[in-house]
Fold this sequence. Notes:
This protein has nine helices and seven strands. Helix 1 packs parallel to helix 2 and helix 3 runs parallel beside helix 5. It is an alpha/beta fold and 236 residues long. The chain has a single domain, classed as Rossmann fold (3-Layer(aba) Sandwich). The chain has a seven-stranded parallel β-sheet with strand order 3-2-1-4-5-6-7, with helices on both faces. Strand 1, helix 1 and strand 2 form a beta-alpha-beta unit. The site of NADP nicotinamide-adenine-dinucleotide phosphate has 30 residues, from helix 1 and strand 2.
Amino acid sequence: MEKIALVTGGSRGIGAATALALAARGWTVHVNYLKFRDKAEAIAAKTGGVAVQADVADSDAVARMAEITGPVALLVNNAGIALRGGLLTDVTDDAWNRLLDVNVGGMFRCSRAYIPGMVHRKAGQIINLASILGVMGGSCEAPYSATKGAVIAFTKALAKELGPSGIRVNAVAPGMIDTDMTAAITGEDRADLAESTAMCRIGTPEDVAEMIALLAEPGTGFVTGQVIGIDGGLVL
Ligand code: NAP
C-alpha cells in the first residue's frame, strides 16, 4: 500500500512535527487543520500532501475531507483541544460538549471515514493521541483526562476489531510537551513539571513525532492496541 498518511491537526505543534517526521521517512502526508490555513499549507508543501480544512467535530466536514484525500495507509488522530485548567464545578455544558466532540468524536469520525479504505486493502494503521493524563488523571483537568482515557479504551477496542483485517491501532500518551496548548504553563509550574520527569525536562513536539513515525514503520507490525508513554519517565 502506498505510503500516504493524514495527520489531523497537522498545522501546528505535535501534528506538524509528526507530518514532517513521516515525510522524512518517505510518507506523503495530508495535513488537516481547523483555522490556520497558512501554517497547514506550509507543512503540506514540505510533506507532498494537501492541506484540508475540516472541523473533526463535524461529520459532514470529515466526510468531505475523506473524499478530497482519498484512502490513506496511516491515520494519525492528533487534533485536540484542552480546557483552561479549573474546578470541575466551573465547567460549562458547552465547554464539556466541545471537548468531547473534538477529542473523542473527532477520533471516532475520522476513523469511521478512513477505515473502509484500509479494510478494502487489508492493511493500514491508526495512531491516536492520548495523554498521560488519560492514564493518571490531572487535578483540575478532569474533563480533558476523561477524553484521553476514552482515547485509550477506543484504541484497545478498535485494535481488536480491526486486527483480523490487518489494521493496527495504537496510541501514544505524551507527558507535557512544549506547544501552544501548554504555553500558558510558565514559571515555577513549568519547572516543577520538568523536575517531575526522570529526564528533568519538558518534551518537544519532535519527541512525540519520532515515536509516531517509528510506530508507523512496518518493523513494528506486531504492535497493536498499545499505549506508548512519551513522558520522559514521568510514569514508571
Ligand atoms: P496545539 O499546538 O494546540 O495544536 C492543535 C492542533 O489541532 C492544531 O493543528 C489545530 O488546528 C488542530 N485542531 C484543533 N481543533 C481542531 C478541530 N476541531 N478540527 C481540526 N483540527 C483541530 O496542540 P498540541 O499540543 O500539538 O496537541 C496535539 C495533540 O496531542 C492533542 O490531541 C493533545 O490533546 C495531545 N497532547 C498534547 C500534549 C501537550 O503537552 N501539548 C500532551 C499530551 C497529549 P489549527 O492550527 O488550524 O487551529
